[in-house]
Here is the input.
Amino acid sequence: MTLLLLAAASPLPGLNLHLPGNNSLPWTIVIVLTLITVLPAILISITPMVRLLVVFHFLRQALGTQTAPSNQVLLGLGLMMTWFLMQPVLTQIDQQAVEPYRAGQISGMQALERATAPPKAFMLRYASEKDLELFAAASMVKRPATRADLPLSAVIPAYMLSELKAGFEIGAILFLPFLLVDMVVAAITTSIGMFQLPPVVISTPLKILLFVMVDGWHLLAASLLKSF
Here is the structure.
């Protein structure tokens, strides 16, 4: 992950990331291109993308619009919000690892070690203690003195579990007002004997209208940003 960040921050013709004992630039390019293929998994694993996509999915299900907004729109919004939220972390990586490496002040391995610190600190900030203990115990590593001493192999899955939990909590709260609209519409249509028209046909436009009237996208984005 950090190797990819370093490569992305450097122009390809001037790329000087070499394997220890191997000064072949073509091999370096092969490794970087291989890492690019796992970029989606890396993006989801160490960024707020998990929480954002879970919340967006719950919102679409609550509105009952099925495919609106489309997956591409929600993914694009999630990517842009993730980029915004991760800017401080990317700035730290650039200052602590990329710039010193470009200046020749540190080696490639030192740059990699420094580049892992900001993302790890970000994940530890939002990973729950219970999830960290679970993976630390399962990995059978020596009990660390502090959270920062945990390996990334334990921090990343713990962070993902914590983000999934947070996303489901926000999604459940988001679902409640729309569920109330569905219940009220269903009760009214049943009481007046309107059995030919499904309640969802009436409740869906009402939920969309309610969401637009309260400026739902702004409120949702503000709530998600404040949760980090």
